[in-house]
Recover the amino acids of this structure.
């Protein structure tokens, strides 16, 4: 089984085939490994961790919402600290988007010190800065992956998302989640031996859905 961890940059589709007349790039411009496919997706205007695998069962296991793998996102949103605190309470409980309520989420404001320590790379192109519009960063963890879900959720509580980065994926095996450590935007690596064993284990000992 081949499994890759890729730091998807802004402006890249989560697929190898380019879309006709699209301004977005495809995975083929970054990854030349044959017969691997994204286990889940990130929108072209989102960034962060994307897993690719040659094993269809693993792809299905990681993307099936019944298993509820936590996915951790960092989002830069429009809004001041007070607005953020109100919005976080609503997000944690679940919000109504497109006629359906989202599952309860884990969410918190990102402390400035933690954000600085992470040394996030600048986005290209950069976010448009507006002097009179304050922005904040939040961390949001979800166990489902509807279309543009994070953006729809934050918009529903009055915190439009400006930048969105998936920073980690939890394998639900009691060990640290897979993350972006050591990967700059556009870089990828093979899963190491420990990570590969963990991925094999979740297939051999799959928990009941929702556990």
């Amino acid at each position: 089984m081949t499994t890759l961890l890729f730091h998807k940059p802004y402006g890249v589709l989560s697929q190898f085939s380019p879309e006709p007349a699209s301004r977005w790039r495809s995975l083929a411009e970054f990854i030349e490994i044959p017969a691997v496919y994204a286990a889940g997706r990130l929108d072209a205007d989102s960034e962060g961790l994307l897993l690719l695998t040659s094993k269809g069962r693993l792809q299905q296991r990681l993307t099936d919402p019944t298993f509820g793998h936590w996915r951790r996102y960092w989002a830069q949103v429009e809004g001041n600290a007070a607005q953020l605190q109100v919005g976080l309470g609503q997000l944690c409980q679940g919000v109504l988007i497109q006629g359906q309520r989202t599952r309860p989420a884990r969410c918190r404001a990102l402390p400035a010190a933690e954000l600085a320590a992470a040394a996030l790379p600048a986005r290209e192109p950069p976010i448009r800065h507006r002097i009179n519009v304050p922005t904040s960063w939040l961390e949001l963890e979800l166990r489902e992956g509807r279309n543009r879900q994070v953006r729809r959720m934050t918009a529903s509580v009055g915190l439009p998302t400006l930048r969105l980065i998936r920073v980690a994926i939890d394998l639900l095996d009691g060990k640290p989640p897979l993350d972006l450590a050591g990967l700059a935007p556009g870089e990828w690596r093979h899963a190491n031996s420990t990570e590969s064993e963990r991925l094999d284990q979740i297939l051999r000992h799959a928990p009941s859905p929702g556990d």
Notes: The domain at 71-168 is CATH 3.30.70.1560 (Alpha-Beta Plaits). The longest strand covers residues 161-169. The chain has a mean pLDDT of 92.
